[in-house]
Write a structure and sequence with these properties.
The structure is a homodimer of 180-residue chains. In chain A, strand 1 and strand 2 form a beta hairpin. In chain A, 54% of the residues lie in helices and 6% in strands. The two termini of chain A are 44 Å apart. Chain A contains seven helices and two strands. Chain A has a domain of 110 residues: Arc Repressor Mutant, subunit A, CATH 1.10.10. In chain A, helix 2 crosses helix 6 and helix 4 crosses helix 5. With 180 residues, chain A is mainly alpha-helical. The interface between A and B is large, with 75 and 73 residues. Chain A binds a DNA duplex (30 and 30 nucleotides) through helix 2 and helix 5.
Amino acid sequence: MSKPVFFETTMPVETTVPFGTTLEVRDTCLCLHAQRAARALARRFDEALRPAGLTNGQFSLLMALNRPEPVGMQPVAQLLAMDRTTLTAALKPLARDGLVELGIDPADRRGRRLSLTGKGLAALAVAVPIWRGLHGTIEAALPPPGAEALRAGLRAVAAEPQLRNTAPSTPPPASIHSGL
Amino acid sequence: MSKPVFFETTMPVETTVPFGTTLEVRDTCLCLHAQRAARALARRFDEALRPAGLTNGQFSLLMALNRPEPVGMQPVAQLLAMDRTTLTAALKPLARDGLVELGIDPADRRGRRLSLTGKGLAALAVAVPIWRGLHGTIEAALPPPGAEALRAGLRAVAAEPQLRNTAPSTPPPASIHSGL
DNA sequence: GACGGTTGAGTTGATATCAACCTAAATGGG
DNA sequence: CCCATTTAGGTTGATATCAACTCAACCGTC
C-alpha cells in the first residue's frame, strides 16, 4: 500500500475522471437520455410494426411521403431531421421492394420526386392502426407533465442548427476553431 | 372523369391514408420525435467531441466503464438501453484502438470484464469539459419545463420492457401469433 | 453562350443497430 | 458424473447513420 513517494514526472500523470462525473453524465446527459429513449421506442415500434413489414423509420418515412404531391428529398430529410445521404440510403430498400417511387423533377433534373406506390400506401394502411394502438399505450403510461410536454422538449432539442453535408460556401470563416 | 361504374371487386380497392393522419403522426408520434431529437443531439455531440476522438456513443460507453471495478457486458448494455450485440460491436473499434480492455471473468469464464485503459481515460478526460460546455448550452436553451422534466419523460419511455435477444425459456407459448 | 459559383444527389467507408442463430460455460437433477 | 436447461457472449446479415468526396444540373455574369 505504501508506494515510494518519488515517481517519474516525465511520464504522464495517471489521468482520472472522478466517479462522480460518471454519475453526473449518466443521470443528466440529454444526449444519452435521448439515445436510450430512441433505442427503446424504436425497438417497441419495430416489433409492433413487424406484421406491416415496416420498421419505425420506414413507417415515418412512408408517412412523410403520403401527400397529394410528390416531394423532394430535402424537405423530407429536414422533416425527419436526418442527413440527406441517410435518406438516400433509407429509400433504397423501399424502392427495391416497390413501396416508393423516385421520379425526376422535370423542372429541375437534379431534383427527385418521391411518391408512394399503391403497395406503399397499403403497407401504411396496415401500419396506422398498429401505430395508434401502441402510441396510445405509451402516451397513457407517461408521468405527469405528459406527452405534449415531452414532445415540446424533443422539438426544442431537435430544432437546432441546419444539417450540413453540403459544401459550405466559405468553410472556416477565418478562425480555425469554429466552435470557440 | 366519368369512369364506368363497374369495376373489379376482386382487385384491392385503392387504399388511402388520410392526409390528416400524416399530419397527426408528424406532430404527435413520440417515436419520430425521439428519433429526430436523438439524431440532432448525436450530430451536435459528435461534432463537438471530434477533438477528443470520440463519438457521442463512445463517450457514453467509455463513461459507463469509468468505475472502480471492471463491469460485465449486461449491466452496461442495460445502462445504455442498447442491445447486447450492439455493445459487442461498439466495443470492437474501442478495443482495437486501445481505449478499452476486455478481460475474462475468472469466476465465470463466460463473462467479460470491461475496463478503461489509460488511453481511454485520457480521451475521457479530454471529452469531459467539452461535454460540460455543450451540455450547458443545450440545457440553457430549453423552454420552460426545463431539462429535468425532459429527462424524466425520456426516462419514462426508455424504461420499458427488458431487452430480449436472449433465447426465451418457452418461446411461443402456444399460439403461432405471439403479438395478437 | 462560356465560365464560375451554387445547389441537388449519389457513393464510399466507418460505425451503429438489432433479429436470428450459434457456441461455450455454469447449474441443477437424477 | 451426465444430461438438460439456463445463461454470457459472439456471428451474420440487413438496415441506419453520417462525414468526406464526387458528379451533374442550374444560374448568374460578362
